[in-house]
Design goal:
about 550 residues; 15 helices; phosphate transmembrane transporter activity; alpha+beta; Phosphate_PstA; SH3 type barrels; cell membrane; membrane
Length: about 550
């Protein structure tokens, strides 16, 4: 036994077991997050309950079972419920999502099993997804075109009319963000141009007349587009649907606010699977609604990826140049030791401190100076002197800089001195040796540092809350207006979206599944970025493998 312990085999098995347990724990956590998040998009069964109130009145509730729990009877009696004749120790109560926010006080309600007279899953119950006020549950009675009821199959008529409305909404969105947005952008540029002329003392009558003429033409074009937009909006509001809700009353809903309709109780497994994929696609490509508790997260995905890529573009050359200087040029003296200690200590600074530094230095000092030098006509409204994606990328670049420096230095230290000496002996300069021999051989280590930097930066939230991220960004950092890349704009981020939905949402129960879904999506985005970087690293490793021999 002592010989076995001295051989080191137990420690190998212990290490392997610890790694296996860690891997199982991580995979289990990912599976839990994925399951809780992805099941949110599955079309759930819609129930119709017949209930009795404490006063003996009967009423109907229609909705989805969101959660259930066992509650001690003593706790319920302590809350004021009589529960005469109940002999069980616990009772089950159901958390039901009822929707129909215009007509019920709460989107969710608890139903106690002693109040339930019956529970059915009748065919024909529809879930109507809307752009506001959440889902609407009920029985579709008829579809109206104006005031005229349409004949034929109600479901086919409703589906075709919703597709028509969605097409009109897409045209309106394209018009608003395309031509109308371009005119608004040009009008703002004219306003700033006139302001600049006034500040410079060059506001001559001819220059102002030219600006007014161009502004008049733009406003004339705007009125034409505005009339087209109003016509499209009237067409989208033309049709409506009559739905009988849980109160037994008929409610008329404009199709202009409807996004989709489904009949989960009538769906088979294949139909539910197709609907599930459709909902996931809408979640990934759509925009948030209802204070981020409904809709999609595409702006947050775009903002996260864009910010991480911009951060990688900034941190890679800075980290590589710093590592090359420290390893190849700097002498081994006290100053170099202090610099190395400072770089290592930077990795231990709390991320929120980087956020405060970014806000004070990048936003207020650097951004404010840029505004005073290059954008005085826009003041007091800041251009670069407010949080934005550029300052977020720079802040995270400083945060992840130690990782890239240390990783690059490790790669440089593994390159034999004979390689450098051989290159110099053949007549190459030190700069040529670095550029053609050393950096290519160290490129896998550089990519390793970049992978670690991406993983760290993509999950950071605290510093971004100070230097650029917002709850809802009206415009993406990239659009069709010159200069097309607007790094001064605020942006949305998946990590902040999770925080906002989970802790700042006005409807916690509705937001909880979205927290899991967005968390799973954030992990997927990080894994995707890392896999891309790993692929590039492996390609570079194979490409420059011959230099090792």
């Amino acid at each position: 036994m002592n010989k076995w312990f001295k051989s080191g085999a137990p420690w190998i098995w212990l290490t392997g077991g610890a790694v296996s347990l860690s891997l199982v724990a991580v995979l289990g956590l990912l599976l839990l997050i994925g399951w809780r998040g992805l099941t949110y998009f599955w079309p759930h069964t819609i129930y119709e309950w017949q209930l009795t109130s404490p006063e003996g009145e009967r009423y109907t509730v229609i909705g989805e079972i969101h959660d259930r729990e066992a509650v001690p009877v003593a706790q319920l009696r302590g809350a004021g419920l009589g529960l005469e004749g109940v002999t069980e120790d616990t009772l089950t109560r159901y958390l039901v999502k009822t929707g129909n926010r215009e007509f019920v006080p709460l989107d969710f309600r608890w139903l106690l099993e002693t109040d339930i007279v019956s529970r059915d899953t009748p065919a024909g119950l529809a879930v109507l997804e809307r752009s506001n006020h959440g889902n609407f549950y009920g029985y579709v009675e008829r579809v109206l075109e104006g005031d005229r009821a349409l004949g034929g199959d109600v479901r086919e008529q409703l589906q075709s009319r919703i597709e028509r409305v969605l097409e009109l909404n897409d045209r309106m969105k394209t018009l608003q963000r395309g031509e109308i947005g371009k005119i608004n952008f040009q009008l703002e540029k004219l306003r700033l141009q006139q302001r600049k002329l006034e500040l410079d003392g060059n506001a001559t009558e001819d220059a102002l007349a030219d600006i007014r003429a161009r502004e008049q033409q733009l406003r004339a074009d705007y009125q034409v587009l505005e009339r087209e937009l109003f016509e499209l909006r009237d067409q989208a509001r033309r049709d409506s649907v009559v739905v009988r809700d849980m109160r037994g009353q008929e409610v008329t809903l404009s199709l202009g606010s409807l996004l989709d309709v489904a009949w989960p109780n009538d769906m088979g497994t294949l139909a539910k699977t197709a609907h599930w994929f459709k909902q996931i696609g809408k979640f990934i490509t759509g925009e948030p609604r209802e204070a981020n508790t409904e809709g999609g997260v595409f702006p947050a995905i775009f903002g996260t990826v864009f910010m991480v890529i911009l951060m990688a573009i900034i941190v890679t050359p800075l980290g590589v140049v710093a590592a090359i200087y420290l390893h190849e040029y700097a002498g081994k003296n006290s100053l170099t030791k202090i610099i190395r200690i400072a770089v290592i200590n930077l990795a231990g600074v709390p991320s929120i401190v980087y956020g405060v530094f970014g806000l004070g230095f990048f936003v207020y000092m650097l951004g404010g100076s840029l505004d005073r030098l290059f954008y005085p006509e826009a003041l007091p409204t800041p251009t670069f002197g407010s949080p934005g994606v550029l300052w977020s990328a720079l802040t995270l670049a400083i945060l992840t800089l130690p990782v890239v420096i240390v990783s690059t230095e490790e790669g440089l230290s593994r390159i034999p001195s004979a390689v450098r000496q051989g290159s110099l002996a053949l007549g190459a300069t030190k700069a040529e040796t670095l550029w053609r021999i050393i950096i290519p051989m160290a490129s896998p280590a550089i990519m390793t540092g970049l992978i670690l930097a991406i993983a760290r930066a993509a999950g950071e939230v605290a510093p971004l809350m100070l230097v650029g991220v917002v709850k809802l960004a009206p415009n993406l950092p990239v659009d069709g207006n010159f200069p097309y890349l607007h790094v001064e704009r605020k942006f949305m981020h998946l990590g902040f979206h999770i925080y906002d939905v989970g802790f700042q949402s006005p409807n916690v129960e509705a937001a909880r599944p979205l927290v899991y879904a967005t968390s799973f999506l954030l992990v997927t985005v990080i894994v995707g970025l890392n896999l891309t970087a790993i692929g590039i690293r492996n390609h570079l490793r194979e490409k420059f493998r011959s230099l090792d021999h």
